[in-house]
Specification:
The protein has 137 residues and is an alpha+beta fold. It has two helices and ten strands, in the order H-H-E-E-E-E-E-E-E-E-E-E. It starts with a helix and ends in a 24-residue tail after the last strand. It comes from Microcosmobacter mediterraneus.
Amino acid sequence: MKTLLAQTQNINVKALSFISFIMIGLLAFNPIYAQNSASAQVTVKGIVSDESGPLPGVNIVLKGTKTGAITDSKGEFTFPKTLAVGDVLVFSYLGYENHEIKIKSDSTFIRLTLTEDLIEMMGAPASDKPYKSKRRH
């Protein structure tokens, strides 16, 4: 009976030591990504203007997300979260062309000049015909 109990304990010790060895191996050889990506984070600030001066109210959005910022009365902005290298910021303002800027490791300050966009309006419909209501009295 003692030999059976000793063999069972011996098997349990071997199984536990094998599992421990595998766990230590997985933790020791697992690459650590947090140290690599921390250096690639960039805080972005900037000024947006047109030919006549700064533009207040320009929308700046991280492409593919709902995270964004708006320029103040001086045309200045600070993006609310740090950006990774390769992220794309989309600048949009009514009456101006949208611009996309890809973030690089040295993109800490952006100075952007927006160009006006040509907006064509359709003319008024023919007004020589009197208006007739479809409502019945």
